[in-house]
Amino acid sequence: xVQLVESGGGLVQAGGSLRLSCAASGxxxxxxxxxxxxxAPGKExxxxxxxxxxxxxxxxxxxxxxxxxxxxxxxxxxxxxxxNSLKPEDxxxxxxxxxxxxxxxxxxxxxxxxxxxQGTQVSVSx
Length: 126
Known about the structure:
About 0% of the residues lie in helices and about 50% in strands. The chain is mainly β. The strands form two sheets. Strands 2, 4, 5, 6, 9, 10 and 11 form a seven-stranded mixed sheet that branches. The protein has a four-stranded antiparallel sheet with strand order 1-3-8-7, with no helix packed on it. Strand 4 and strand 5 (about 45-50) form a beta hairpin. The protein starts with a strand and ends with a strand.
């Protein structure tokens, strides 16, 4: 079965950096669009970034553009989220998601992804 396992979360001061990883198994990784979402307490799940399997094109939420970088290593079946210049408002549980690429999908809605990891907590102190 498909498994997505995130790691790399933690507590960091504002302005600091963290690198999240998501290791995937049970799927043909290169055929999948990978996404990162986050959910803060009392808020809805929010799109952060996605990356296509073929070509590696990326797309970011405006709130993280210029600070976060999504990347993937298809040989390691792993997707990364490098987070720089972190702000207290970035505090949330970050989850990775996967779905086979389909034309017509933007992959910014959680409903466009079939597979999810358990999430990793990122806390940014002021």
